[in-house]
Design goal:
This protein has one domain: Aldolase class I (TIM Barrel, Alpha-Beta Barrel). It contains 15 helices and 14 strands. It has about 375 residues and is α/β, with parallel strands linked by helices. The strands form four sheets. The chain has an eight-stranded parallel sheet with strand order 4-13-12-11-10-7-6-5. The structure holds flavin mononucleotide and benzoyl-formic acid. Benzoyl-formic acid binds next to helix 10. InterPro entries: Aldolase_TIM, Alpha-hydoxy_acid_DH_FMN, FMN-dep_DH, FMN_HAD, FMN_hydac_DH_AS. GO terms for molecular function: FMN binding; oxidoreductase activity, acting on CH-OH group of donors. One of its GO terms (cellular component) is plasma membrane. Its cofactor is FMN.
Length: about 375
């Protein structure tokens, strides 16, 4: 029996158990992967201030996100093709999140459809929207998310055109996912994954097949995305989308203080400081490094959440202490899913919560709401002197 102690252990198992093309898809950053690497290494540059001889009983890591109670300030970020990491992956992840008490976000590019996930969960989840050129499709998917009872719309703004990930190109990753011979050969070495996939009919984009124009065409992820996604998305369109949706709206992919101000003035219920896990603009700063400038610009006007690079409870604590109101995780739960299905997602959440709680105690804090810069040792030049 392998003991799973940390997220990295789940990552190793994910790599072993899922087909190379899908593990690579999850583990990729765009181009040189500089931003992808910075996301994790920048967290490591921040250190923690130990405090002793303070009462550490009765601790709580619970909080709220857009008014909804959460077991810890962590939500599952939208991840496309989750259902290729493990059969029916979106349903498994949503169920694990629901049982744990944290929000789940379903991607537009999911394998299980909105209706599939709604049928297999009992609490509302959030829906992430990618704005397509086909307006009828967009209207329709918003209506479907409403009908399924989704309690927030997460509008992603940083991927109207796809940053190239070299591994996907080399592995021949297509949209929707189809198998080439080398990929089939690799899959024969992943028997549990194959059994899972043979046991489900959910193997294509569940929200899209039969809904979006041209979706039947088999092309690379890059060309397909660029054909489907609306390159004209701007603040005017965002306002019209909010009218159509009529509920809570979260803007994802903010990485600039001026954009954050614009989003706050717009009245976003939350913004997600994110570089898409290093998968889009290679060369952008890590989320944790840009966070202080965004906190300075809009703290208190809208909730500020952060994702990109969180791999431990210590990282969550650092993000909160740097001024984020909450966090999101992508790969940290995807590794769990690829390693052990629903139980692996639960395990990832348990690991993060335990790490967050213990680290908080060692910092002399009893409540995540009390975390702040006083808990951190940040190098003087951390934010950098960029001009
Ligand atoms: C495999 C993969 C697929 C993703 N798909 C989507 C998506 O469909 N929609 C979206 O808004 N973000 C997507 N993201 C970005 C995540 O929501 C999130 O911003 C990112 O994973 C955070 O970085 P982390 O993986 O280091 O936690 C994806 C990320 C990964 C790793
Ligand atoms: O891979 C991604 O990061 C992503 O968001 C995406 C983009 C196009 C299709 C599927 C997922």
């Amino acid at each position: 029996m392998t003991v799973i102690a940390c997220i990295d252990d789940l990552k190793r198992l994910h790599r072993k158990r899922a087909p190379k093309m899908f593990y690579d898809y999850a583990e990729s950053g765009s181009y040189t992967e500089q931003t992808f690497r910075d996301n994790t290494t920048d967290f490591q540059k921040i250190r923690l201030r130990q405090k002793v001889a303070v009462d550490m009983s009765n601790r709580s890591v619970a909080g709220t996100m857009i008014g909804q109670p959460v077991a810890m300030p962590v939500a599952l970020a939208p991840v496309g093709m989750t259902g290729m990491q493990s059969a029916d992956g979106e349903i498994k992840a949503a169920r694990a999140a629901e049982a744990f008490g944290v929000p789940f976000t379903l991607s537009t590019m999911s394998i299980c459809s909105i209706e599939d996930v709604a049928a297999h969960t009992s609490k509302p989840f959030w829906f992430q929207l990618y704005v397509m050129r086909d307006e009828e499709f967009v209207d329709n998917i918003i209506a479907r998310a409403k009908a399924a009872g989704c309690s927030a719309l997460v509008l992603t703004l940083d991927l109207q055109i796809l940053g190239q990930r070299h591994k996907d190109l080399k592995n021949g990753l297509t949209a929707p996912p189809r198998l080439t011979l080398p990929n089939i050969v690799n899959m024969t070495t992943k028997p549990a994954w194959c059994m899972g996939m043979l046991g489900t009919r959910r193997r294509s984009f569940g929200n899209i097949v039969g809904h979006a124009k041209g979706v039947g065409d088999l092309s690379s992820l890059t060309s397909w995305t660029n054909e489907q996604f609306d390159p004209q998305l701007d603040w005017g369109k965002i306002a019209r989308l909010r009218e159509k949706w009529g509920g809570k709206m979260i803007l994802k992919g903010i990485l600039d203080a001026d954009d954050a101000r614009r989003a706050a003035d717009f009245g976003a219920d939350a913004i997600i400081v994110s570089n898409h896990g290093g998968r889009q603009l290679d060369g952008a700063l890590s989320s944790i490094r840009i966070l202080p400038s965004i906190v300075a610009a809009v703290k208190g006007q809208t909730e500020i959440w952060l994702d990109s690079g969180i791999r431990s409870g210590q990282d969550i604590l650092k993000a909160l202490a740097m001024g984020a109101d909450a966090t999101m995780i992508g790969r940290s739960y995807i590794y769990g899913l690829g390693a052990m299905g629903q139980a692996g997602v639960t395990m990832a959440l348990e690991i993060l919560k335990k790490e967050l709680d213990i680290t908080m105690a060692l910092c002399g804090e009893r409540d995540v709401a009390a975390l702040g810069r006083h808990n951190l040792l940040v190098p003087k030049d951390f934010e950098g002197d960029w001009v």
